[in-house]
Amino acid sequence: DPILLISGDSFSEQERTRLETALASAFVAGPSDMAALPDAVRSSVRAIAVKGHHPLGGAEMDLFPNLGVIANYGVGYDAIDVTAATERGINVTNTPDVLNDDVADLAVAMLIAQCRNMVAGDDLVRSGRWSAGENLPLNRQMSGSTVGIVGLGRIGREIADRLAAFKCDIHYTSRSRKETPGWTFHASPEEMAEAVDILVVALVGGVETEKHVSRQVIDALGPRGIVINISRGSTIDEAALLDALEEGRIAGAGLDVFLNEPKIDPRFLKLDNVHLQPHQGSGSSETRGRMAKLQLANIEAFLAGDPLKTPVN
Ligand code: 8YV
């Protein structure tokens, strides 16, 4: 009688327990075990709870003839083939908005950490080199910078609002021009990169935005350029970014997302002009609690025949 399949091992024990207790007949199976499940179990699945970035395509969906909803834990659903789901009459839900503040906070934090050399500062103090008389080299002011937000969606807007409070000159690209308080719209990221020092990438993931921050965009940033990415590794031409960082053609980067997480390109680890985070943008306990709650609310709404809270398709 399982109605809910909890996909994969990305959920914490607490998150899994919460789903299992809320929805009496739930069980766990990773994407690679789905095909091996007995027919009767597969037929009983009406909802799948997803966390993490395991691809879920039409072939997996076809294993579950009574599947009605795929509820993603996270705002980004690029690992789910939404077109395939729609074709099969399967609903997809995500967890937008509840994580905007945390992700925007982390973007700003990485930018400040990068400009003010905070990791090296911490190391100087801990290592005893400061007390022995060494000082941190002078670094770079963040307030008042000229910043380009690539993708002025819900998260991009929160980042821009924060940076505006830091007296930054705000530029942005977006599918359409937005109602903004004196911020500068650019038709392309290339054009924007010519005009700003700092790029903050807040795009959605998926094929449409792949390498949107291209080699040309990175080259156009120039030697004071800093790239911050809290979106998906796929949105930047990562090889081009690594080349520019290694050759010192841009000043640095602050990255929470990468290709092939968590086994990221080892070239990053050799660089001292990058600030690296383990895809923790939404990772406060408060926000993760809200995401789990919203995911569950979507599944419960579906099972009750009520309107979904945050439908994608
Ligand atoms: C992850 C995220 O979903 O919301 C998103 O799109 O990237 C994150 O919040 C979260 O880490 C769970 O995998």
TrEMBL record:
GO annotation, cellular component aspect: cytosol
D-isomer specific 2-hydroxyacid dehydrogenase NAD-binding domain residues: 108-281
InterPro entries referenced in this protein's UniProt entry, alphabetically: D-isomer_2-hydroxyacid_DH, D-isomer_2_OHA_DH_cat_dom, D-isomer_DH_CS1, D-isomer_DH_NAD-bd, NAD(P)-bd_dom_sf
Entry keyword set: NAD, NADP, Oxidoreductase
Keyword NADP found: yes
Keyword NAD set for record: yes
A GO molecular function held by the record: NAD binding
Record domain D-isomer specific 2-hydroxyacid dehydrogenase catalytic: where: 32-313
Family (UniProt): Belongs to the D-isomer specific 2-hydroxyacid dehydrogenase family.
This protein's name: Lactate dehydrogenase
Species of the source: Primorskyibacter flagellatus
